[in-house]
Amino acid sequence: MNPSSSARAEPIAGVLAGLVAGAAYLLAQMAFAATVQGGVGWEPLQRTSAMLLGDGVLPPPAEVDLTIAGFGVLIHMALAINFGRVVDLVVRDRDLPAACLRGALVGLALYALNFWVIAPMLFPWFENNRGLTTIVDHLLFGGVAGAVYVQIRAWMQGRRAALQHA
To answer: How crowded is the C-beta side of 165, counted as CA atoms within 13 Å?
Structure first.
């Protein structure tokens, strides 16, 4: 831990970490839907877009609707950005292994909150996606967010120090 860096937040690093981790999570979910569940891969985007567009966009149909998929990506990435900022708060002063572990724990907490508290109240169609795959994907999200955050933060701090000495 580096006490001198604890006072300075790096919100851009949190946002970028959330975007990278959100992409990793989404790709994992889509791959699982397409290979293991026998779908076409778009189902996670349909479920996510239904948060805003309503349950009429839920699967089936299996065909790809770019409007629905686009809304799904936008909603997912907006959430990922915010969750990346949460990871930022938890891993800010940690080294890479600790950041990955703490980030993964944040991912696990997000799974519990999203799938056991929020979904039953607001988005019941997510209840069918509770399970090991979604837990692993949330651990992946948090671990990736933690790793990306500490790397971007270190780069930003190094860049800032180099500019101050120039």
So the answer is: 6
